[in-house]
Amino acid sequence: MERVLVFLLSIFLSAGLSAQLPVREADSLVKVHTALLKSTLDNKGALKNNYSIDLFGVSMYAGAAQKQKNEPEYRVNWSELDLYRRVMHFASREEAQAIMLAKKGGSFSPDIVRTYGNMLYAMPLAPTTEKPLNGIRIALDPGHMADDLEMGKIEQKFLDFTIRTGSDSTLFIQKVQLVEGRLTWQTAELLKLKLEKAGAIVMITRPGPGLCAFGTSFQDWRKQYYQQTLDSLVKLRGKNDPSISPVLSGKTDDRSVFRYVFRDVELRKRVELINAFKPDFTLMIHYNVDEKNTDWQKPTAKNFNMCFVGGSYQAGELSDPERRFDFLRQLLSGDMESSISFSGACARQFRDELKVPLAKPADALYLSSSCVKTAEEGVYARNLGLTRLTHGTLVYGETLYQDNKKECLRLMETKPHPEFPQLSVSPRVAQVADAYYKALLETVGRK
Ligand SMILES: [Zn+2]
Question: How far is the CA of 367 from the centre of ligand 1 (A)?
């Protein structure tokens, strides 16, 4: 028996596995990360062929065959977790991906250990009474881009209907025209002033109303960048790729170009700007609609707030190395946990400031089909491009239903803001900005 043990031990050591002895807290690391997988990232258990988790660490695989042969595409041993987090924090997204792809199932190279091992996280500046967000870096991403109805129609983010109330003699007709990109811009512009006054360093992903993350209007982007963008997409994906084939076969009206070419590349540009800024918090600002109010030709009685974070991967959603890189990062970096907690603070502030309830899973179809609820009320994991590709702590806020019968009228009203009279905004938009602001104060104060 003793001889067998010595034999086994010698194999163990000669195979170089001594470096992989479980770390002391391995048990609890397995427990915590398995719980995050089950509750948030792979809640349907549809992606088990793409990962494994054990007392030594976590592996990601391209598919079932690679898992069977134990050929990881990415691997992080628990003993490397601290270094992995530093690489995710300090390297650019592209560098981090290249480092992880080169590492495969092995260890970090001595060069990476030297470069990142001793990098120090920046010490936050001390908050003061006047500057409670002193030195905090905040990225604001005002969703969509339209500033007028014409552009709102191209990006399909607009409301244009008439409300009729009363009877013949007292008929009251009111026109409702709203574009989401304008509401999100106004929210971000106001919020930026509030945050900067509190000492924060703020960036907005697009430079002005009606402009996109490339710094242009959609029409200017079409003139300057459309052809070269399409050419590079053809090179990358081939002519028959269903995502671009409609425009290649002549569907080149603005709506089609927006949908098949512009939307994705512009989203990538937003992500690039946010990740390069290395924010402490990213706020993706959106205004919602009632998804069952077909074509939005009349108001709805429903009204909810909700927040999204990444996660809730569906079957087939780990189909390429980049997606598997992000899945691993979401599992191990701490970004998911901090995003859920911050989004919880946002959701509570939305509810209290706006006096509108938080959505429950039964309140919208997508909440029960492609999302999963987190431990925070009103916060759902959802595998959106932005929630997957953006590093760090984030909230994807969906406040109010714009098509709600009261909200649509409130959102159209504008007046000079009492604290920043240079801005003319809806008092409702100002309340949304206040809610995000208070959630940041609460979260930074708690840190
Ligand atoms: Zn939106």
Answer: 15
Distance, CA 185 to ligand 1 centroid (Å)? 11
Q: Which CATH architecture has domain 137-213+253-446?
A: 3-Layer(aba) Sandwich (3.40)
Q: What's the CA gap between 323 and 317, in Å, rounded?
A: 7
How many Å lie between the centroid of ligand 1 and the Cα of residue 235? 30
Q: Which pLDDT belongs to residue 7?
A: 46
| Residue found by looking up tokens 């994807």 in the block | 396
pLDDT of residue 168: 77
User: Given pLDDT bands bounded at 50, 70 and 90, which one contains residue 321?
Assistant: very high
Q: Which amino acid is at 231?
A: D
Centre of ligand 1 from the C-alpha of residue 143, in Å: 5
**379 CA to centre of ligand 1 in angstroms:** 16
Tell me whether residue 337 is exposed, middle or buried, using C-beta atoms within 10 angstroms of its C-beta: 0 to 12, 13 to 18, 19 or more: middle
The answer to which of 17-21, 110-114, 205-209, 213-217 has the lowest mean pLDDT is 17-21
Distance 144 CA to ligand 1 centre (A): 6
Distance 85 CA to ligand 1 centre (A): 31
Distance from the alpha carbon of residue 339 to the mean position of ligand 1, in angstroms: 19
Confidence check: pLDDT of 371 > 50? yes
- DSSP-derived secondary structure letter, 357: P
CATH 3.40.630.40 in the chain, residues?
A: 137-213+253-446
Cα 289 to middle of ligand 1, angstroms: 9
Angle, to 10 degrees, between the axis of helix 263-277 and the axis of helix 218-237? 90
Whether 19 has a pLDDT exceeding 70, the answer reads: no
pLDDT tens profile 69-94: 999 999 999 999 999 999 999 999 99
* First-last CA distance in the chain: 54
By the 10 Å C-beta count (0-12 exposed, 13-18 middle, 19+ buried), 423 is classed as middle
Tell me how far the alpha carbon of residue 420 lies from the centroid of ligand 1, in angstroms: 25
Q: How far is the CA of 398 from the centre of ligand 1 (A)?
A: 7
